[in-house]
Design brief:
Layout: E1 7-11, H1 17-27, E2 32-35, H2 46-49, E3 59-62, E4 65-68, H3 70-80, H4 95-117, H5 133-144, H6 157-171, H7 179-189, H8 192-214
Parallel strand pairs: 1-2
Antiparallel strand pairs: 1-3, 3-4
Amino acid sequence: MPTAEPITLFYSPHTRATGVRILLEELGAPYTLHVLNRAAGENRSPAFLAVNPLGKVPAITHGKALVTEQGAIYTYLADLFPEAGLAPAFDDPIRGPYLRWMFFYGSCMEPAVVDRFMEREPGPQAMSPYGTYDGVMDALIDQLKTGPYLFGDRFTAADLLWGMALSWLTAFKLVPEEPPVRAYVKRFQARPIVARINAADAEMATEHQVAAARG
């Protein structure tokens, strides 16, 4: 049964929080947006730093629980609404692979991409959190080849995380648009909820810029 506890998503448009909002919509979950105008510095306000001292979105509260970090939020919410079918059950054979790919993004993909973009060496193999950039990309592309989604025909919350991430990474040319990546992003962006939230984000971002300019 859906939870009766309130869910609040701390949110700014065109951020990692966008994917969490899409997930909530896909889950059919009731939630409230607590919008922060980053252009006006609201994510650095004392009130929000009390929620997340890093000053970053997304963050959610669910009753008395506070959850930050993308992988944790996606996992938490998808498990909270099992009737939506976006999280494999604990005894499902793909539960382990699902968790692997839910956390591979933050643990390996983002550090690898940032190091590559900043033209930094990943460090010694024993110290690097991801190994090598090429190794990360090879693992991703091999998984996407099982398509159409990360786990064949089965669409999960992990696909919402990766679909949103790869949409941004390809748009900014931070990862090569190999055919499996390009096809995966196209399928993700064709989802009606994705298009609707992206349009809402564009409108909200414009409003925030105008408000910040007015002071």
